[in-house]
Structures are given as C-alpha cells and as structure tokens.
UniProtKB/TrEMBL annotation:
It comes from Chrysochloris asiatica (Cape golden mole). This is alpha-1,2-Mannosidase. Pfam families: Glyco_hydro_47. Pathway: Protein modification; protein glycosylation. The lineage of its organism: Eukaryota, Metazoa, Chordata, Craniata, Vertebrata. PANTHER family: MANNOSYL-OLIGOSACCHARIDE 1,2-ALPHA-MANNOSIDASE IC (PTHR11742:SF28), MANNOSYL-OLIGOSACCHARIDE ALPHA-1,2-MANNOSIDASE-RELATED (PTHR11742). SUPFAM superfamilies: Seven-hairpin glycosidases (SSF48225).
Length: 592
C-alpha cells in the first residue's frame, strides 16, 4: 500500500512485480522445492525424513533383517513350526519357531561342486542384496527333507535282511544290554542334571564347564541321535521337548569353536537328518552363525575361542603361547559347515571351510606331514609337532568322510587324505619288537614312541578309506587297519580293568601300556570301540564283536555307579577311583 502512494510509481501487477521478474521468481521457487524434496528422497540414509512424508510400509510377516555376521549380511525368515507351537511360547529369542535363518538367492541354481572363493564371495554379497528386494520375499529357501530321505540306501531304523542269518538270540540280548545302559545313563542324567551340560554321577548333580560359552544341555543334544537309533522313543521326545523349550542361544560367554561344533551343531544336524524336525535345523543354523566371528583372522583360519557376547575371538593360551590354531579344531568343521550351507542356502559356511582347505593346500608341509599348530595370522606352522592322536586326529577323519559325504566327488579331500596317509606311513608308522603296529608322534624329526587313545580311531578310518584307495593298496590298507586296531585292543587287554589308558608307550621293553599315572586314566572314550565297529562292518570277523562285548562288560564292572557312568583314574587298578563325570560323548558315541 505504501508503494502505491508514491508519486510516479505504477505497479505492474498486484504483487508489485513486472512479468519478467515474476517469471524469474517462480523459476527460482520451483528449483528450490525440487532441490529440497530431491534431497529427502535421493540422499543416503534419508529413511527418517521419508517417514515424515510417506505412509509407513507394512513389513511382510516373518521377515527380519539381522546384523552382519562376520561381514556377511544375513536375511532370515521365520520358519513354520513342524507341529503347532505351544501357546506359552512368544516371539523372540526363546521361541524355537520364531527363528529366522535363510539367505535368499535370486534364481541361481545350487552349486554341486566347489567354486572359486572370489566367485563365492561375490555370489554371497549379491545374494544378500537380492534378499532385500520385495519380489524375492515369496521365494524362501527350502530344504526338501522328503527327497533326502528317499535317496537313503537303507532305512534309518530296523534291520537289514541279511541280519536274519545271525545268531539273533545272542546278538539281540547284547543289543538290549547296551540299550539298557543307554537308558540308565539317560535316566541318571535326567534325574540329577537335566539341562546341565554333563552329569556328575558320584555327587549326583550337574556340571556346566567352561567350554560352551554359556550354552547348556550338551548331553541332551549329543545324545539325540543315539536315543533315536535305539528307538528309545519316550526318551527322545523328552530330549526334543527340552531343545524346543529350553535350549536358548542368547548366551554371552567364551566357547570352544571345536566343541560347540561337534557336540551341539553335529548333534542337531544328526537329529534333523534322522527326523526332519525343523527345530533341529533352525537351531543348528542359528548356532552356526554365532560361530562365524571365529573366522575373522587375516588368513581366514579360525581361532579356537569365540566370545558370544562381543563377537571377538582368541586362541587357547596353552597353544604355543596363545598364538596358534589347532589342526584338529579348524580341520574338523568341514562336514557340519557344508551341511549348514545345504540346509540354509547361505554360502558363507561353505566359504569359510573351503578357505581352510585353500590355506592348507598352499602351505608347505614338512615331508608331506601336517603339524598340529598353525598361526591364523601368518598362515605358517608354529612348530613341527605331528600327531594322529590329540591335536591332529579328526582332521584326517574329516578328509575321508568329506570324500564319502560328497558322493565321491570331492577330489580335493580324497587327494589330501591319501597324500597325508602316505606321509604318515612313511614317517610315523612303526612295528614294536613284540609285533604291534602303532603310529608314533613326530617332533621335528624325532619320534615319540607312544600312541594316544584318541589315535585309535585310525584303525576304523583306514578301513573306511581302503575301498577307494589305489587298487594295489586296498588289501594293504585293510591289513594295516586290522593291525592298528589289534594294537589298540592290546592296550585294553593289558590293563587290570580291560579298559585302555589315555596314552600308551612302546619303549624299555614295555609295549601298549601307560608309563605314568597321568596317562593311565579312562574317560569313557569311544575311539577303540569305534574302530571295532568299522572293522566289523568291513570284515564281519566275529572277533570285533567279541572285543566290543569285553568293553561292555568292563564298563559295567568298573564305570557304572549308582548315579550313572563315570570315568576312572587308573585302568591298572582293579579298585576303581572314579572321576565323577559322565561325558556327553559316552552317550553320543561310545554306547552307539
């Protein structure tokens, strides 16, 4: 109004602007609006601002995006319950049915052969991104359990037709006795230690230990497949119910990568493949994810300890001043981790263990031997101690079993196994003056003429691998397996209890016996009877069943207590001094 009263001023419009000025003003205003709104929608991390202008999107039920694990983003989906979920269960950590564990991949066919690590890593990253796209949410990964069961050569339960030719009265009575021992071990655990990791039978209470990072129920999960195979249906349902309702993964301690893998993940995978119950598959995958931080090292060789709370990792303090990973530990992941990929569709598990193989193939090996200690930082051997017993044992076992598990397509595993076995024969194999064949330990070229109980699995392993050896070596390997198993039997036969010591020596005129009390204990280990079982299956020589029955009788006489089975501290004493521990592997392996 003031400007209208000024003499000589004639406004061009109601706004006081001429036409060209108005055009420029509108052009500037439209540019400013475009810039502001474009920033809201196009700049990174603008989701909070978008919510000011856009209606919230409804998330598809069952999907959640979880934090990166070991640098690999995982998109997981809630699985339907195999049976209706109990009403008491709610969503969250403790609900076994409200678990999410699948990485979705965009229409790629499943690979049946190993691919290059770079190709696999790229595929995993692209798959993770594709998993977030809305159009992919209707294509979750599914494992076809029925197709798997249809491919089995033999039924899981029941007897084979040829068994009708056996002296059934004796065989069945012996089986029923072992089954009764399993029932007793389970019922004792259930009564005094249900939910704890292991039973202490003398004090009749439970034991947690420090190896499992706060996880509980090791005996339950380790025993699942044995209960199922022995057709202990009521006991199996008790164990399954505990896994569904009480096996929680929200723990925060430090755990052994190796022990959690073989006892928990191995137990859950076995139970799933036997039954098809989804709870076992889902728990196994989620627990596998919790172990992935162990692989966060410069070489990808995992450290032996993982902290479930912080995601950090470390090595055992006693493993060459805490600088080393152990061959038997990082070499005993392949079977379980390949199955975790098979059951989840997430390639990260397979990538991790294939990288271990890559490192081991590349590194120079002294005389073709694999030392027990490797630096996860440098990728070099820390010291030249070689053993097919403790610290090394299951690495070799996993090689031959990886070859067999792959349907005999994993040529890398096959070649590594037979190359290692040839080196072991050349540098470690010995025959005592008394004619006993044993595998010594090697320390920088000097032999320790002893064999550990853990090394006694090797008779069964060599027997298992004989079929696929070069034709001219098959008979030799079968005979070698028999001779090593005979030596391990002698370590039992030469004790007062007819149970074997933790380690036995061949020196000073003494053969297949422990030379000090610290090696004279027996903790319900399975390796010797495992080799009996393999040799029986391969040869059907009745001597292996006879030797197995000797172990059953010795366990009953010296290890059975009022509150369960216990290890003993001296196999050379006919008056047992029990160690008050019923190991989970006694139910998982020895009795099986």
């Amino acid at each position: 109004m003031l400007m209208r009263k000024v003499p000589g001023f004639a406004p061009a419009s109601a706004w006081g602007l001429r036409l060209p000025q108005k055009f420029l003003f509108l052009l500037f205003l439209s540019g400013l609006v475009t810039l502001c709104f474009g920033a809201l929608f196009l700049l990174p991390h603008s989701s909070r601002l978008k919510r000011l202008f856009l209606a919230p999107r409804t998330q598809q039920p069952g999907l959640e995006v979880v934090a990166d694990v070991g640098g690999h983003p995982l998109v997981r989906e809630q699985e339907p319950a195999p049976n209706p979920a109990p009403a008491a269960l709610t969503s969250g950590e403790n609900n076994p049915y409200n678990l999410a564990d699948h990485l979705r991949r965009k229409g790629w066919p499943r690979r049946t052969r190993p691919t290059g690590l770079r190709e696999e890593a790229t595929a995993a990253r692209v798959s993770s991104i594709a998993a977030l796209r809305p159009q992919e949410r209707n294509l979750p990964f599914r494992f076809d359990f029925n197709a798997f069961r249809s491919r089995l050569r033999h039924p899981v339960l029941g007897r084979r037709p040829e068994e009708s030719k056996e002296p059934q009265s004796l065989v069945r009575a012996q089986r029923e006795k072992v089954k009764e021992m399993m029932q007793f071990a389970w019922q004792s655990y259930k009564r005094y230690a249900m939910g704890k990791n292991e039973l202490r039978p003398l004090t009749k209470d439970g034991y947690e230990g420090s190896m499992f990072g706060g996880l509980s129920g090791a005996t339950i999960i380790d025993a699942l497949d044995t209960l199922y195979l022995m057709e202990l249906k009521e006991e199996f349902q008790e164990a399954k119910a505990w896994v569904e309702e009480s096996f929680h993964l929200n723990v925060s301690g430090e755990a052994s990568l190796f022990e959690v893998n073989i006892r928990y993940i191995g137990g859950l995978l076995s139970a799933f493949y036997l039954t098809g119950e989804e709870v076992f598959r889902i728990k196994a995958i989620r627990l596998g994810e919790k172990l992935l931080p162990a692989f966060n090292t410069p070489t990808g060789i995992p450290k032996g300890v993982v902290n479930f709370k912080s995601g950090s990792n470390g090595s055992w303090g006693w493993a060459t001043a805490g600088s080393s990973s152990i061959l038997a530990e990082f070499g005993s992941l392949h079977l379980e981790f390949l199955h975790l990929t098979e059951l989840s569709g997430n390639q990260v598990f397979a990538e991790k263990v294939r990288n271990i193989r890559k490192v081991l193939r590349k590194i120079e090996k002294p005389f073709g031997l694999y030392p027990n200690f490797l630096s996860p930082v440098s990728g070099n051997w820390v010291q030249h101690h070689v053993s097919i017993g403790g610290l090394g044992d299951s690495f070799y076992e996993y090689l031959i079993k990886s070859w067999l598990m792959s349907g005999k397509t994993d040529m890398e595993a096959k070649n590594m196994y037979y190359e290692a076995l040839e080196a072991i024969e050349t540098y470690l194999l010995n025959v005592s003056p008394g004619g006993l064949t044993y595998i010594a330990e090697w320390r920088g070229g000097i032999l320790d003429h002893k064999m550990g109980h853990l090394a006694c699995f090797s008779g069964g392993m060599i027997s298992l691998g004989a079929e696929d050896a070069k034709e001219e070596k098959r008979a030799h390997y079968r005979e070698l397996a028999a001779q090593i198993t005979k030596t391990c039997h002698e370590s039992y036969a030469r004790s007062d209890t007819k149970l074997g010591p933790e380690a036995f020596w061949f020196n000073s005129g003494r053969e297949a016996v422990a030379t000090q009390l610290s090696e004279s204990y027996y903790i319900l280990r399975p390796e010797v009877v495992e080799s009996y079982m393999y040799l029986w299956r391969q040869t059907h020589d009745p001597i292996y069943r006879e030797w197995g029955w000797e172990v059953v009788m010795a366990l009953e006489k010296f290890c059975r207590t009022e509150g369960g089975f216990s290890g003993i501290q001296d196999v050379y004493s006919s008056i047992p001094n029990h160690d008050n521990k019923q190991q989970s592997f006694f139910l998982a392996e020895t009795l099986k």
